[in-house]
Amino acid sequence: MLPSLLISLIFATLTGGENPAIQVILNNKGLQYGKNVGAGWIQDNLKRVTLPDISGKISIGFLGSVGYTLTGVSVKQCDFPEPSVQFQEDISGFKSSISGLSVALTGGWRTHYGLIHDGGSFDLAVFDVDVTSTAKLGEDADGHLSISSVNCSADVGDIKMRFRGGASAIIQFFVDNFRGYIVGEMERHICPAVNQYIDAFEHHLQAMNVSFPVDPFLGIDLSLTNLPSVDASSLTLGLKGDFYQIKSHAGPPFKAGPFTLPKQPGFMMSVGFSEFTLNSASYVYFSAGLFSRLVNDSVIPPSSPFHLNTSSFGPYIPQLPKLFPDLLMSLQVYAREMPVFSLQPGLIRLGLLGSIKAFAIQPNATLTPLFKLNVDSKFSGKTWISDGLLKGSVEMDNLTLTLVSSEVGPFQVSKLAHGFDIPRMKHAQLVNTVLKVEEVCIHLSESLSLCLPLSVLHIYLMLFCFFFF
Ligand SMILES: *[C@@H]1O[C@H](CO)[C@@H](O)[C@H](O)[C@H]1NC(C)=O
Ligand SMILES: *[C@@H]1O[C@H](CO)[C@@H](O)[C@H](O)[C@H]1NC(C)=O
Ligand SMILES: *[C@@H]1O[C@H](CO)[C@@H](O)[C@H](O)[C@H]1NC(C)=O
Ligand SMILES: *[C@@H]1O[C@H](CO)[C@@H](O)[C@H](O)[C@H]1NC(C)=O
Ligand SMILES: *[C@@H]1O[C@H](CO)[C@@H](O)[C@H](O)[C@H]1NC(C)=O
Ligand SMILES: *[C@@H]1O[C@H](CO)[C@@H](O)[C@H](O)[C@H]1NC(C)=O
């Protein structure tokens, strides 16, 4: 236990200066939007609130103390002015305040003084409540965002209480004469209640997972890399953003480079990814051997004029159907090196160094090796948002086919390259128009688009398949 704790502490200090691979900026516009949603929610829910019973004792000079209980207290009416929330640079947090809040409450009262029990109902109006609270953001040892109260002040303008039933006249007398005391008691309770809310929020933050499984194989670590940074108009969070193998929790051996996400105050929020995030996924898939597939004729639609058999390859490799007439073929397609993404302004580049080993499937199911090709390609892609959809286009910038070895004698590789002109896909859907929200459409040509779920990994895998099928 202790050694692992020490290791994680050392690790935490060592990684303190780590570059974030994902950055999230919350702008003032987003903060104000959040505030309005929150305030609307509070206003809608306040009327449905029934407060827990409030019990206490009041000592009345020589009479000793009278126990009281306020029960079934509910909000009858609430004048909820617009709260204000702003970034507070000096403490790296927020300052929230509400001023001029008024609430009318109604409920029942009970008192007990020795054996004498009494009760009735009451109305309570609290006027001009001002509350100001500042809270700072931080980071805990596990990379969770944390929040804690810095200071709080509460001021209650005035109260009005009306008691009915029982010996309410006596209570009324007490309330009228000790108004200042009651106001003070209320003020004394507001800030602890506010702090309790902040603590509850902090508990939620601590309980939140900062690592999530993305698929059965891959997880993503979204813990903070450094303290949240707050200036007068925005909050910036730097997240680790690396993919790791779920089984071993091993991430990539390379580190994220620095990148700056430009501030765009016109947006509520900006999220930026560095190429490290994509490349860490690539690394994990590659190192686990997942960029390797055995492809056979079953992936090609029966109606296709081209089939994965030795006769179909005749036009490109004339000797193949002569040496191995009418045999089905299979291809082992794999990445030779980790596919690498690089992000440039407005452009995503992807380099794929792949190989294909071709086999003839003998009638007794033995695989006879035919040839091995290296297939090196470069893609560039663009993404943009229009009509609320994230869209993208991908172009193949360069394709180099090299014959590495051949068991069937030499052949013209350039001829074979034509076979790749029309990508054949079974697992991808070809459509003419852009599809639903949260899909990425990759335009293969003027009329064909490939639409995929919005997941970087899927784009990634599909690019891979797109190329090889
Ligand atoms: C609360 O803390 C903030 C930041 O330190 C400070 O500016 C403000 O004056 C404090 N307010 C009170 C009521 O102490
Ligand atoms: C956090 O992760 C653990 C283990 O992966 C899981 O059991 C738990 O349900 C997750 N909690 C939340 C709130 O997602
Ligand atoms: C083709 O591959 C599929 C799955 O990859 C497999 O189920 C099938 O048996 C293979 N067919 C041949 C003829 O090898
Ligand atoms: C090979 O593919 C061609 C189409 O290219 C098809 O006409 C032929 O039937 C296939 N042969 C075998 C053995 O599958
Ligand atoms: C399968 O067939 C091939 C070609 O006919 C032959 O060379 C090979 O020895 C056979 N393998 C087995 C295990 O029968
Ligand atoms: C394509 O890649 C090869 C090998 O990397 C290179 O020699 C060639 O110049 C590239 N062609 C283009 C058009 O970029």
UniProtKB/TrEMBL annotation:
<dbReference type="InterPro" id="IPR017942">
    <property type="entry name" value="Lipid-bd_serum_glycop_N"/>
</dbReference>
<keyword id="KW-0391">Immunity</keyword>
<feature type="disulfide bond">
    <location>
        <begin position="152"/>
        <end position="191"/>
    </location>
</feature>
<dbReference type="GO" id="GO:0005615">
    <property type="term" value="C:extracellular space"/>
</dbReference>
<dbReference type="GO" id="GO:0050829">
    <property type="term" value="P:defense response to Gram-negative bacterium"/>
</dbReference>
<protein>
    <recommendedName>
        <fullName>Bactericidal permeability-increasing protein</fullName>
    </recommendedName>
</protein>
<dbReference type="InterPro" id="IPR017943">
    <property type="entry name" value="Bactericidal_perm-incr_a/b_dom"/>
</dbReference>
<dbReference type="Pfam" id="PF01273">
    <property type="entry name" value="LBP_BPI_CETP"/>
</dbReference>
<keyword id="KW-0732">Signal</keyword>
<feature type="domain" description="Lipid-binding serum glycoprotein N-terminal">
    <location>
        <begin position="26"/>
        <end position="248"/>
    </location>
</feature>
<keyword id="KW-1015">Disulfide bond</keyword>
<dbReference type="InterPro" id="IPR032942">
    <property type="entry name" value="BPI/LBP/Plunc"/>
</dbReference>
<dbReference type="GO" id="GO:0008289">
    <property type="term" value="F:lipid binding"/>
</dbReference>
<feature type="domain" description="Lipid-binding serum glycoprotein C-terminal">
    <location>
        <begin position="263"/>
        <end position="446"/>
    </location>
</feature>
<keyword id="KW-0929">Antimicrobial</keyword>
<comment type="similarity">
    <text>Belongs to the BPI/LBP/Plunc superfamily. BPI/LBP family.</text>
</comment>
<feature type="signal peptide">
    <location>
        <begin position="1"/>
        <end position="17"/>
    </location>
</feature>
<keyword id="KW-0325">Glycoprotein</keyword>
<comment type="subunit">
    <text>Monomer. Homodimer; disulfide-linked.</text>
</comment>
<keyword id="KW-0399">Innate immunity</keyword>
<keyword id="KW-0044">Antibiotic</keyword>
<comment type="function">
    <text>The cytotoxic action of BPI is limited to many species of Gram-negative bacteria; this specificity may be explained by a strong affinity of the very basic N-terminal half for the negatively charged lipopolysaccharides that are unique to the Gram-negative bacterial outer envelope.</text>
</comment>
<dbReference type="GO" id="GO:0045087">
    <property type="term" value="P:innate immune response"/>
</dbReference>
<keyword id="KW-0964">Secreted</keyword>
<dbReference type="Pfam" id="PF02886">
    <property type="entry name" value="LBP_BPI_CETP_C"/>
</dbReference>
<dbReference type="InterPro" id="IPR030675">
    <property type="entry name" value="BPI/LBP"/>
</dbReference>
<dbReference type="InterPro" id="IPR001124">
    <property type="entry name" value="Lipid-bd_serum_glycop_C"/>
</dbReference>
